[in-house]
Amino acid sequence: MPERNTISWNGLISGYVKNGMTWEAREAFDKMPERNVVSWTAMLRGYVQEGMIGEAERLFSQMPVRNVVSWTVMIGGLIEDGRVDEALKLFYLMQLQGIRPNFPSMISTLSVCGSLATLNHGREVHAQLVRSLFDCDVYVCSVLITMYMKCGDLVNGKRVFDRFTSKDTVMWNSIITGYAQHGLGKEALQVFYDMVSSGVPPDEVTFIGVLSACSYTGRVKEGLQLFESMKSKYLVNPKTEHYSCVVDLLGRAGKLNEAMNLIRDMSVEADACVWGALLGACRIHNRLDMAEVVAKKLLLLEPENTGHYILLSNIYSSQGRWRDVAALRSNMRVQSLSKSPGCSWIEVEKKVHTFTGGDITSHPEHAVILRMVEKLDGLIIEVGYSPDGSFVLHDVEEEEKVHNLRHHSEKLAVAYGILKVPKGMPIRIMKNLRVCGDCHAAIKLIAKVTEREIVLRDANRFHHFKDGSCSCGDYW
């Protein structure tokens, strides 16, 4: 070209970026005599799609002018990188700088709100969608339902669902999966039958939802019938995810031999998800003999997954086999593997407060939180609580076990919630791992003695604690 302007340069850069040629795009970008916001955004998108988030952040910080597209690209990059809390902060910073969110940025932020369970932020984004007239879109409603369900707000999730007369498969799946995660098996199955009767065909995701719902609520007969009907009636071929749900269903019900037989007869190769479900069942029912066999399978499939080591360690420690626990931990050290620390968080006044198990001093209000933990401990002991030392994974004195249990991350978050969340409002806690049995028993009693409703979302499901009982019926 005898003459090149900004548009032609941008065309070349965008072409390179779309074809994954990031470094060629950067070379052209550096040679440009004059750049505009389109040039910068195209280059930013190139770093984000290649996963070079550090480079993207540097480029974003150097941009002289940013438009809504560049902000949205950067927010999406942070989400893809797993830095969802930073993505949420960037979304609000964008608005503080006078940039009105567009449709993609709002949808991305809604998914972040669901992941972090920041309900107040999610409600704000919902309001923005309404003002922008985006809330009538079927896809938007599916994302809204998922966000509300993940935040533990079943009422608003169902309200969004009921507003639509013509629902697609994704919307039906959102509400079924939501009910399943909350342990509402009856409601999930009813929605499934409503879906079928309305003429919407169920898909693979639908069956993961309903089979999970059956597993979480002990509906073995219904779950097995649905599994059998997948292929014969609904023409959906079962995949490993569906087998995993059925193994979990049988395992939770104590039918471990039937679960093992199902794995052996699978039409597809069993993966770590399937074997992991069986190992979890071995933990529940103390089947050490089977657990050791299953663990060997898992460690061959995923030798770097610390979760398998920890689950087997839990089983050993519950039976006082401390030498085996020590051997497992030694093996982990040799392979440079470390356990992910238990982490819980709670949103208070639009700010997320994070707690890590055993680490009380990092929070600025640690002194008052510790006093509340001790006060709650005293109150629940009066009504029958007895610390369960089998959930402490070290061979230590009983007094130290009680101390360790008291400082589990979910108990710290609950104590902070009681201090900060007004009475009459549910205390909503999230945890990155499965809640331990001792904390589950303790939080039931905390809900009773404080007359508070506590909603806990762990790595597997939701627990609604109220009046001394849990929605899971201790079947989890």
Automatic annotation (TrEMBL):
InterPro entries, sorted: DYW_dom (IPR032867), E_motif (IPR046848), PPR_At4g14850-like_plant (IPR046960), PPR_rpt (IPR002885), TPR-like_helical_dom_sf (IPR011990)
Tell me where in this chain the DYW domain is found. 384-476
What is the originating organism of this protein?
Linum tenue
Going by the entry's taxonomy, the superkingdom of the source organism is recorded as Eukaryota
- The UniProt entry annotates PPR repeats at 5-39, 67-101, 168-202, 203-233
Stated name of the protein: DYW domain-containing protein
Entry keywords, A to Z: Repeat
The answer to whether the entry has keyword Repeat is yes
Gene3D superfamilies, per database record: Tetratricopeptide repeat domain (1.25.40.10)
Q: Which GO terms describe its molecular function?
A: RNA binding; zinc ion binding
Name of a matching Pfam family: DYW_deaminase
**Family as reported in the entry's similarity comment:** Belongs to the PPR family. PCMP-H subfamily.
Please name the GO terms of the biological process aspect recorded for this protein, alphabetically.
RNA modification; system development
